[in-house]
Design a protein that fits this description.
162 residues; alpha+beta; 5 helices; 44% helix; globular; disordered N terminus
């Protein structure tokens, strides 16, 4: 055990995957943290496609698990609403690429649709720095969909070493 109640090793499986304290935040609701935990615990049920647009992104995300799909839609709608209100949840493991979204939320136009294809999100901006952050964040989310918490650990490790 290390000082934070987390155990490393065992391929990352030594972590507190039940409580996932890193998914809590200074300004996040317990429901938001629970949605994130569910998506990380069952990330294998998810798939995602991203199209980088010149002025933003178009993503299609889905899950074969109806409970995960419900959490995914709730999370996306909630976070897009928070960005519009500049209401940063300050999740402990949150990527710094989100900072610009919360600072410049009024510069982002978002469309959300839930179809048979999955959750479709189109976000655009006339701010080139916001667009660059959208492209980077979309790639980060795709990595989390593919690798779960391992992707988060790799991103955090990369930030520490830079």
């Amino acid at each position: 055990m290390h000082g934070h109640g987390h155990m490393h090793g065992a391929g990352g499986m030594g972590h507190d995957m039940a409580n996932m304290p890193g998914l809590q935040g200074e300004n996040a609701t317990p429901e938001e943290s629970a949605e994130l935990a569910l998506m990380f615990q069952r990330f294998q049920t998810m798939s995602r496609e991203v199209e980088n647009l010149p002025n933003g992104i178009r993503t299609v995300t889905r899950s074969s698990d109806p409970e995960v799909m419900e959490a995914l839609v709730s999370h996306a709608v909630g976070m897009i609403d928070r960005v519009g209100q500049k209401d940063d949840p300050k999740i402990f493991i949150q990527s710094p690429t989100l900072d610009i979204f919360f600072a410049r939320g009024e510069r982002i136009l978002s469309e959300i649709d839930v179809t048979d294809e999955g959750l479709i999100v189109i976000q655009t901006s006339d701010d080139p720095e916001v667009v660059a952050a959208m492209h980077k964040h979309a790639a980060e989310v795709s990595a989390m969909v593919e690798q779960g918490m391992h992707a988060v650990h790799m991103m955090m490790q990369e930030r520490v070493s830079n």
